[in-house]
Amino acid sequence: MIKGIGLDMIDLDRVKAVLERNPRFIERILTPDEEVLFHGYKGSRQIEFLAGRFAAKEAYAKASGTGFGKDLSFTDVEILTGQNGEPRLIQPKRTDELVFVSITHTGRSAAAQVIIEANERRS
């Protein structure tokens, strides 16, 4: 059973501008393991990665019904890369949920969708 669906989209130029004004934006959005992935990219690909993770984390917060605030921050949500290059939500790890993440980029924007499903075997 689906528990929540979240969708978010962000302009790449907006992310680039924020990052140029405040390089610590990376630390606010990415976990240490995500930062390692970020630094493995160069130039515009870094912006796409950061924007994609931002959008995916926003989509997760929407799907979970909490939004970001006192109970959830950007660094509480970790999205790493699976064996085939697919995004995988690692944290928050909730055994009662299955989380599906999709991230896409165009020349101007990044978007992500998250679907949270009840894990019937564990709930």
Automatic annotation (TrEMBL):
Keywords: Cytoplasm, Fatty acid biosynthesis, Fatty acid metabolism, Lipid biosynthesis, Lipid metabolism, Magnesium, Metal-binding, Transferase. Its main location: cytoplasm. Mg(2+) binds at residues 8, 58. Its EC number is 2.7.8.7. It is found in: Cytoplasm. It comes from the Bacteria. SUPFAM superfamilies: 4'-phosphopantetheinyl transferase (SSF56214). Residues 4-97 form the 4'-phosphopantetheinyl transferase domain. One of its GO terms (cellular component) is cytoplasm. One of its GO terms (biological process) is fatty acid biosynthetic process. It is an enzyme of class 2 (transferase). Gene3D superfamilies: 4'-phosphopantetheinyl transferase domain. It catalyses: apo-[ACP] + CoA = holo-[ACP] + adenosine 3',5'-bisphosphate + H(+). Its cofactor is Mg(2+). One of its GO terms (molecular function) is magnesium ion binding. Pfam families: ACPS. NCBIfam families: acpS, pantethn_trn. Belongs to the P-Pant transferase superfamily. AcpS family. HAMAP family: AcpS. Transfers the 4'-phosphopantetheine moiety from coenzyme A to a Ser of acyl-carrier-protein. This is Holo-[acyl-carrier-protein] synthase. The gene is acpS.
